Task: structure prediction
Amino acid sequence: MLRYIGHRLLQMIPVFFGATLLIFAMVYAMPGDPVQALGGDKGLPPSVAAQIRAEYNLDKPLWIQYLLYLKGIVTLDFGKTFSGREVTEVMANAFPVTIKLAFMAIIFEAVIGIFFGFFAGLKKGKLFDSTVLVVSLVVIAVPTFVIGFLLQFLLGVKLGWLPTTVGANVNFQSLLMPALVLGAVSCAYVIRLTRQEVSENLTADFVRTARAKGIPESRVMTHHVLRNSLIPVATFLGGDLGALMTGAIVTEGIFAINGVGGTLYQAILRGEAATVVSITTVLVLVYIVANLLVDLLYAVLDPRIRYE
Result:
């Protein structure tokens, strides 16, 4: 197992450098001059603009800027924003909130999605299955901001069960509604994916063999049908963790959450390349680690991989 982990880590090294290089190049290729934008409509005097470019290494060639950025990653020095704040401080304030929100959303979509998808697959073609498919399709079709405003109105304004905004008061209760909104679409996909896998595995040869051996039906459902059906679901959930963190921009905007999404959006508007590149680099690392964990989870779900 340790050899397998080491092999996967070696594969991820070029992925990391390639992704960060592309992100770095695209961010710095964005149109406009963020330095001149600091001066508003009048711009900045040439001497002041040159001083700022020298301070942020913007006067150097792109490849030198990238090497300096890699050096900063190693030393955990991601630079400063145009306002003088350390980027590490900005990320330290933003990431914990979004990580909590993303994990709450992925737990919601995993539990609800697998539960309803499993029973819909068992009752394929019946009323429960048809209802679940219709509801999941509606959730996929409705934009996220519509779901957010609808839940705000129903759960927050009408019923008063949950706060309508988060702001500085970040706790489980305040993040529950944003987590439901953030994970709603992914939950619908998990339902449909689990339902499809369960319905196919019910007619598989290994399930018929297990029943022919006299294995109890409950064990057939949990250890053979559900366990094998979760392999593609685990792949989806692993990749979705990073997608939830980057896709939180809309959700965080609706519920006034000071997380990664809002910070990244404001940094893009201000042209703060150091902040944008740093946040996206951390998100790349989240994707890489999540995929590694999914690969390790395969060995738990599929004994054939573990034996190999």
